[in-house]
Design a protein that fits this description.
The protein has helices spanning 62-74, 92-105, 116-119, 130-138, 142-149, 229-242, 259-282, 288-294, 309-328, 352-364, and strands at 20-23, 26-32, 40-48, 51-55, 82-87, 108-112, 167-169, 174-177, 180-186, 195-199, 204-208, 247-250, 332-336, 342-346. The chain is an alpha/beta fold and 365 residues long. The strands form 3 sheets. Strands 1-2-3-4-5-6-7 form a 7-stranded mixed β-sheet, covered by helices on one side. It is globular, with a radius of gyration of 21 Å.
């Protein structure tokens, strides 16, 4: 069953399978994410006559492809009608099904050009990334790195779904589809090459994982790290806020009325986290791991020890990303010891952190 474009799917039912109309000629198709707390990923079908373009593709799973085929059938099409996949970033729940379908049907796949370094590292599960383990060690989380390294699930598995796309998309590139133009906007942060697609005429923004309605995207978790993921993310949020406001068509969660409103919430959230990180250093924490232990995680405000190893990895890397922004702002200093562990301290002494944070926020406001 399709939904009337005026309907706004609630947070409780957004994962319901099918093709849900969100705008004239645009349909949201939730696809499954097994064993993932996000529960589903949205692909968006843009339909014009006999042609279909898909924004994001889902994870390469038999169940996912069957649900995608069924949803397209509701619209009178099948996978053979898809002329192209336009993918926001190179994570498995967005990219791999496009490559799997291409092998069988020859469908073209397009991805942001700045994803090249990460994509070429991806020849197995994300936990096989040596760069992430090295970042954990430098954050003082050597025991966590060792535990992840010993996990048999991180053995490389080259399933062929990390192949290069047919087309590399550049920032501000115009994609001509029947009856509409999408503008590519480079929004690094969640990944270095993340892009969103803006339909400026229709007032729609396909935001991928850059702007999500209920959660903040992970920061600092990719196979070819940039060293400044949170700085990039905050800058990208400001860029999106400078564009005309639009309806938010996210990769996870229901459609939102205003991208700008959610961007403002995300910016405020990260300022709160930056303050919490600064306070943890002021209270005696030194490493990224020690700060992560002091912070609450998820909407349920869990302790780091309550998370599984993968989510602990995400938490520590995100904490380091916040600490590095504080170093850039002059609130903290960073010093690496001979063993490679980075320690942080307040510039001017422990009591200086809070005052420097307040001054930084005032300047940015």
């Amino acid at each position: 069953m399709t939904r009337n474009p005026a309907e706004a799917p609630s947070a409780s039912d957004w994962t319901e399978p099918g093709a849900h109309a969100v705008a004239p000629g645009v349909f949201r198709i939730p696809l499954p994410l097994p064993h993932d707390s996000l529960r589903a990923v949205n692909a968006y079908a843009i339909v014009a006559g006999s042609e279909v373009a898909l924004i994001d593709s889902g994870w390469a799973l038999a169940e996912s492809e069957a649900l995608l085929e069924r949803a397209l059938g509701q619209l009178g099409h099948d996978l053979g009608a898809v002329t192209g996949f336009y993918v926001t970033h190179a994570h498995r729940d967005h990219y791999t099904q496009a490559v799997a379908v291409r092998r069988r049907l020859g469908t073209r796949v397009a991805l942001g050009v700045h994803e090249q370094p990460s994509l070429r590292q991806l020849r197995g599960p994300y936990l096989s990334s040596q760069a992430q383990l090295e970042l954990l060690v430098s954050a003082g989380a050597g025991n966590l790195a060792a535990r992840i390294e010993a996990d048999p699930s991180r053995q490389p598995v080259d399933d062929g779904n990390w192949a290069d796309p047919d087309d590399w998309l550049a920032d501000q590139q115009a994609i001509q589809l029947p009856g509409r133009t999408l503008t590519v906007i480079h929004t690094p942060g969640h990944t270095r090459g993340h892009i969103i697609f803006a339909d400026l005429t229709a007032g729609l923004a396909f935001t991928g994982d850059h702007v999500l309605p209920h959660i903040t995207p992970s920061i600092g978790f990719e196979s070819a790290p940039t060293g400044r993921p949170l700085h990039d993310f905050l800058t990208s949020l400001e860029l999106v806020k400078s564009l005309p406001d639009a309806r938010m068509l996210p990769a996870h969660g229901p459609v939102g009325a205003s991208v700008h409103h959610r961007v403002e919430q995300l910016l405020a959230h990260h300022e709160d986290r930056l303050s919490a990180c600064s306070q943890a250093i002021e209270a005696g924490a030194h490493t990224g791991f020690e700060v992560a232990v002091r912070l609450p995680w998820t909407r349920r405000r869990r302790r780091l020890s309550e998370l599984d190893s993968h989510n602990q990895l995400l938490a520590v890397l995100e904490t380091v990303a916040h600490l590095d922004v504080l170093v850039t702002r002059g609130v903290l200093t960073a010093t690496a010891d001979p063993g490679g562990t980075t320690s942080y301290g307040c510039t001017g002494g422990a009591t200086a952190c809070a005052g420097k944070m307040r001054r930084t926020i005032d300047v940015e406001d």
